[in-house]
Amino acid sequence: MATLRVENLWMEYGAQTVLERVNLDVADGAFCALVGASGCGKSTFLRLLLSQERPTRGTILMDGQPLPQDPGPDRGVVFQRYSVFPHLNAVQNVALALEIARAPGLGRLFGKARRAALSEAEVMLADVGLGHACGHYPAELSGGMQQRLAIAQALARKPRILLLDEPFGALDPGTRTQMHGLISRLWRETGMTVFMVTHDIREAFALGTRVLVFDKTRHDPQAPGAYGATITYDLPVDRSTSKVPSASEEKSAP
Amino acid sequence: MRRLINLRPSRQGTFFLGALPFAIVLVIYFVFSSLRLAENPADKLMPAFSTMGEAIVRVAAEPEQRSGTIVLWADTGASLVRLALGLGIATAIGLVFGILNGLIVYARVTLAPFVGVLSMVPPMALLPILFIMLGLEETSKVALIVIGVAPYLMRDLALRVEELPGEQLVKAQTLGASTWVIVARVVLPQILPRLIDGLRLSLGPAWLFLIAAEAIASTEGLGYRIFLMRRYMAMDVILPYVAWITFLAAISDWVLVQISRRAFGWAHLGRGA
Q1: From chain A, which residues contact B within 8 Å (Cβ)?
Q2: Using CA atoms, how far apart are residues A206 and A202, in angstroms rounded to an integer?
Q3: How many structural domains does chain B have?
Q4: Confidence check on the interface: ipTM exceeds 0.90, yes or no
Q5: What is the pLDDT of residues A112-127, one digit of tens each?
Q6: CATH 3.40.50.300: does it fit domain A1-74+160-254?
């Protein structure tokens, strides 16, 4: 639901260049998988899209407008860990997003409005397969269930772009396959643009409509930090032949 | 033969072993007290348990002749009010500045060096200044507790806030939360259990400052009483008073633990999410 344009982006930390000459055009509703070696700057790129950091040079345009300077509800995020709030149970975690949307000043709803938000949150949890775990605190949920919760929470504000930073990296293979089915279905249903950082090349090709490979094109053996990575391959993927489990194969939470 | 590190006592064994040191201390006291009293029945240093019992009845059940108040309860009331006021004010200061310093970089760079230096000032060294400026009444005693405890709470809570994963703060922003909403819904609820831990650790220093202030200038209070009784070497009053103070401190610690368990069950679930 949002086009994204990256123009000549550079990211430097002191003398260390992490990203250089990154140019990218992403159409509405694309699913971009970001792959590359550890430390190649793909997570940095995600943080820039999130406005968690500012680029040293270059611009990022969303629908033709420069990206806001702070993270905001237009871009949702799921991290590998620590995405949910440990002091709120599952349904409260999701309802928090609705409470902030409806009462931006206090961030808290009361009475009937609060009960309405909680029951909406329960529906959203059921949609990601957590209907049975509404009252559980994050510490009582398995890794896969925590990520389901994080996804439900991120989607509650209906972001136009969803940023995923190795969301399934800590999960076992079986759970990971179920999560692939879940995220594919949600992406199709919402039509949002997705950026996902992953270490897993097969995951990238299974889920993405585009696979963006980050790598360094120039090396200086005397100064490893002198040159940064850029997008070296931009591979379109035909999702119609991919082997992602369809929504019917997606099981409920482990 | 099993290894020592793998041995676990039974439930009764745990209770018995825990009670053992207390029993040993009481027995040792009883033996030496009896020996001294056998030699000199007027000995005041280690009074018999019966003498202490009489003293307890005197201070806890009979009104004092001059003032007409029951000494122990008047002292306890006065001390607990000072302690509660001091800890309450210190908690409020610690929460406000702890969150500010932990979350807002501008507040941290402005205040952190100052708080760092301030917390190095020994609070007892400030007591004369407090007496001169605030007088010998309640204010200076409460102020000493606040000065002694607030810097620790402030720095402890600021560290706890800084320890919150950055991902949580970013996540809250992507849900649309303003700085204020992040404080109210993400930061504050998560550091309240930490505040209780900090308060528990502050109970010892708070009692120390209270008794010190009462010893120097007061007309009632637990600290005042034991230092007054020292003049008469009235160990039969001093020892029960010390035991009573210890009991009060232990009870407040237990109450804080219970509050934390009841109100912040999520914090006791083991590892956080």
Answers
A1: 50, 52, 70-73, 75-77, 79, 81-89, 96-97, 99-101, 104-108, 137-141, 146, 150, 153-154, 156-157, 159
A2: 6
A3: 2
A4: no
A5: 999 999 999 999 998 8
A6: yes
